[in-house]
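A.,

Following up on our hallway conversation. Structure tokens first:
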């Protein structure tokens, strides 16, 4: 492995060179490509996650790059594409329009709001379809080059294009979803690709998606519960069951083994930051009491590698920087680093095989 890293000192001060973590790689050189998507037009509670990718990029150079589970982790060749200013502008415009539509839903009901704001709803749905198709095309190109792709949101709707691209590459893959919400709603609030519909859309659009394992779910509708029970591909580890098992003496290691036993070899990781305890992500769009420490998720991720799983892609979503301080971005950058390191460890193991 090449160890010379021009203009990069993993023990020095992080340099804001425009790339994630200040790493010195181009898209051509990198093994892992992160595509940032500044989009939160369908967010129905708190806005701000569209600013997540830029905030995480700025915070990422503050990390240190030793990782106890990955030897010479700083040699991970990772590159983040530039954040699209065009899509930032489109999102800002449509998010503002969407606020009025969502406010109308809350005051007059969804049926009336969809009639009053038919044009707004159409605009958002059409823009998001274009966003998804652009992402899918880019991901297919990168996958053909042998890259591993991650998506950095933005709201949780954004990785659908990547998932559809992976569906064309793999005949069998699963999703490990870390989240407070099941995201199994169909066309929530009239948005075809709502942040609350990402897993519903993935299951519908990806015929090679054979397993969805949800971990930490604790805010869910009755219809979603029934949907999860009725679909053999879905296995949900509810937060209340995880906590109850812990109260009765079952440790996290034992529970992780049960989670991993449900997973196929080819694995995509979808990490909604609200899967963590809300004090770690207080400005996320829909925080929910309960959840995990980041160290617990880290343990789960690296146990995947010990179990022989192959990480084929990932996303991190719903990080919202808030107006004061950079705590959310700091935690988000560290969560992204964990995803990069577990993906790199998987890549190294499968490259040797």
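Then the amino acids I'd put at each of the 353 positions:
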């Amino acid at each position: 492995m090449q160890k010379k890293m021009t203009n990069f000192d993993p023990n020095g001060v992080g340099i804001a060179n425009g790339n994630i973590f200040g790493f010195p790689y181009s898209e051509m050189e990198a093994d892992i490509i992160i595509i940032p998507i500044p989009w939160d037009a369908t967010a129905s509670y708190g806005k701000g996650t569209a600013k997540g990718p830029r905030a995480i990029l700025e915070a990422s150079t503050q990390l240190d790059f030793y990782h106890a589970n990955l030897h010479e982790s700083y040699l991970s060749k990772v590159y983040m594409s530039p954040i699209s200013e065009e899509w930032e502008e489109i999102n800002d415009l449509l998010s503002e329009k969407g606020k009025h539509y969502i406010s109308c839903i809350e005051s007059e009901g969804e049926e009336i709001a969809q009639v009053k704001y038919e044009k707004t709803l159409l605009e958002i749905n059409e823009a998001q379809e274009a966003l998804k198709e652009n992402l899918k095309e880019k991901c297919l190109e990168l996958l053909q080059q042998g890259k591993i792709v991650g998506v950095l949101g933005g709201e949780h709707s954004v990785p659908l294009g990547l998932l559809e691209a992976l569906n064309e590459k793999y005949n069998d893959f699963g999703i490990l979803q870390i989240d407070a919400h099941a995201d199994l709603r169909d066309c929530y609030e009239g948005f075809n690709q709502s942040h609350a519909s990402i897993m519903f859309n993935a299951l519908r659009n990806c015929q090679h998606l054979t397993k969805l394992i949800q971990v930490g779910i604790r805010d869910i509708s009755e219809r979603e519960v029934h949907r999860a029970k009725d679909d053999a591909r879905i296995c949900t580890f509810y937060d209340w069951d995880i906590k109850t098992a812990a109260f009765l003496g079952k440790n996290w290691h034992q529970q992780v083994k049960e989670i991993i036993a449900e997973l196929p070899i080819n694995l995509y990781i979808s990490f909604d930051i609200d899967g963590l305890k809300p004090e770690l992500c207080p400005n996320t769009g829909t925080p929910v009491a309960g959840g995990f420490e980041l160290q617990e998720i880290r343990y789960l991720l690296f146990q995947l590698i010990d179990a022989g799983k192959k990480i084929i892609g990932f996303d991190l979503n719903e990080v919202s920087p808030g107006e004061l301080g950079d705590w959310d971005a700091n935690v988000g950058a560290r969560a992204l680093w964990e995803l990069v390191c577990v993906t790199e460890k998987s890549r190294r193991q499968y490259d040797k095989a």
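The chain has one domain: 26-352. Curious whether your intuition agrees with the design.

B.
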